[in-house]
Amino acid sequence: MKYQIVNLAISAGGALAATSGEFNVLSMNVAGLPEILNSNEVPGDKTTNSEEIGAKFAEYDYDIINVQEDFNYHAYIYSTDTHPYRTATSGGVPFGSGLNTLANFNWVDFARVKWATCSDASENDCLTPKGYTFMRAIIDDGVYVDVYNLHADAGTEDGDEVARAANLKQVADAIDANSVGNAVLVYGDTNSRYTRPDDGITVFATQNGMTDTWVELIHGGVVPTVESICDNPSLVNTCETVDKVFYRGSPLLSLTATYWNYESTKFLQSNGSILSDHNPITVNFTWAAGSSLRQSGYWGGPHGTWFTDVTALASKTSPKASVLSFRGGSRLDSVGLTLTDGTTFTHGGTGGDAATLTLNSGEYWTSAELCQGQKSGETRNFYIKATTSAGRTLEAGTSTSDCATFAAPSGWGIVGYLGQDGDEMDQLAFVYAPQ
After folding, report:
1. How far is residue 376's CA from residue 365's CA, in Å, rounded to a whole number?
2. Residue 349 · residue 423 · CB < 8 Å
3. 4-289 CATH pick, 3.60.10.10, 2.60.40.10, 3.90.1200.10, 3.40.1190.20
4. Fewest C-beta atoms under 10 Å: which of 207, 246, 299, 306?
5. What residues contact 393, with CB distance under 8 A and at least 6 apart?
6. Over the range 347-365, which residues count as b (16 or more CB within 10 Å of their CB) and which as e?
7. Other beta carbons within 10 Å of 311
C-alpha cells in the first residue's frame, strides 16, 4: 500500500489525525467486452488475461484503481485482486456500465449515472448504459476526495463528437452540483484528444478549475497541438492517450501531482503480449490538510441536495461562531450558526422546535454529537448536541442508539457545515477553523 502518514496532529478527542500524506491512482480500460463483440486486438484468452490483470492490481497495490469496460470478465479480475474495498459490478453487456473501482480506502456516497446522450454513429455506445460513477473517498479521518470514473462515447463521426462533448459536460456539471469546495479526481477513458477540439476535453479546466496531470507533469503545463499516437505498450510518456487523469484541491485539502507514468510494461502477459488495448496510467499525489479550514467525518445518509459553507468560509480571516441555532422534533430539521461578522448559515427545513445558544466572548464550539436513524427507508440525522469550550450545550431532535461524536482539533472550533439536506438533515459534517 503506497499511502503513508507523514504528519500527525492530536484532535480534541485525543485521537491522532493525519495532516498530510500520499497516495497513487491507476486508470485502466480492461478490455472486458465479450470476445464475440470485440477482441480488442488483444492476444490470448480474455478470461486468463482478466485474471492476470487482477493479480497485477494486487501486486502493485495502487490505492484507487478506476477501470472501464469491466463487463463480462469482472469476476475473474476480482478473483485474483486483493484490494479491501471494491464496487459491485452493475452487470455485463448490455446491462452494466463497465465502470468499477478497487481501492485501499473506503468511501461514502457511491452513485452510478448513465449518460444523458449517446451515439451509435461509428461505435455501439448505446448498447450499454455507459456513464460515470461518483464516490467520496475517505483518504483519512476527515480527509475526503471526490472521485469520478468515466467512459465517454467513442468514435470520430459528427454524432460521436456531439455525444462525447455532452458526456464530459455532464460530468463537469455534476462536479459543480456535488463537489463545490471539495478536492476532486476525474479519471478514466475519455475517448478524447486535445488535437480534436470538438471532443470538449478542456471543459474540466475551464469549468471546474482542474488540471490534467499529463499536461502538467509531462508537457510542462503546455497543451500539445500536434497529435502523437502511443504504441502499446508505450515506452514513452510524451505521446497522448485518450485515458486521462484530472485533479484539483480545495480549501480543505491541497493536492499535488508528483509522478505520472504509463504502466504498460507492468501489464503484460508472460509472453510479452499486452493485456489490454489501452495503456494503463498511474499518478502519484501528495496531500495536506488545510491550514485554515478542515472538516469532520460525515453522519447520516447520501440523500437530498448537496450544500457546503466551505467556499464562503474560505474568503474569511479567522471565522468564529457567535450564535448556534438548531431546529428539531422527532428528527433533526435544520442546523445553522451565525459568525461574529454577521454571516449566517442555515441548512435544512423549517419544521421542529427552535433552539439557540449565544456564545460568550472567547467561547467557541468544540464538538458535536450526531445520532442517525431511518425515515421512509433513508438514513437521516435525528439528533444533534453541541458542546462549547465552556462546557455549555445545545441540542435538538430525538436521540437514537446510532450516534457519533465529532471533535475539532485542539485549538480549533466548528464554524460551518457541509452535507446534504431537504426538509430535514440527511447527511452532515462540520467545518473547523483555528480559534
Report:
1. 32
2. yes
3. 3.60.10.10
4. 207
5. 385, 386, 387
6. bbeeebeebebebeeebbb
7. 12
Question: CA dist 71 to 32, 38, 288, 408, Å?
Answer: 5, 12, 36, 44
CA distance 329 to 369: 16
User: Can you list the positions of beta strands (E) in 96-252?
Assistant: 100-103, 107-114, 131-140, 143-151, 184-189, 211-212, 243-248
Distance CA 300, CA 378 (A): 9
Say if domain 294-434 classifies as CATH 3.90.1150.10: no
| Cα angle: 74, vertex 79, 85; to 5 degrees | 80
CA dist., res. 143 & res. 420, Å (int): 18
Contact 255, 146 (CB under 8 A): no
Which pLDDT does position 8 carry in this prediction?
36
- The domain limits of the chain are 4-289, 294-434
Say which amino acid occupies 6: V
Q: pLDDT for 219-272, tens place per residue?
A: 999 999 999 999 999 999 999 999 999 999 999 999 999 999 999 999 999 999
The C-alpha angle 388, 391, 393, rounded to 5 degrees, equals 65
Strand 16-29, strand 64-68: pairing:
parallel
Q: Quote the CA–CA distance of 59 and 81 in Å, as a whole number.
A: 8
37 Ramachandran zone, left/alpha/beta (phi>0; psi -120 to 50): alpha
Mean confidence (pLDDT) of the chain: 94
Asked if 4-289 and 294-434 have one fold, the answer is no
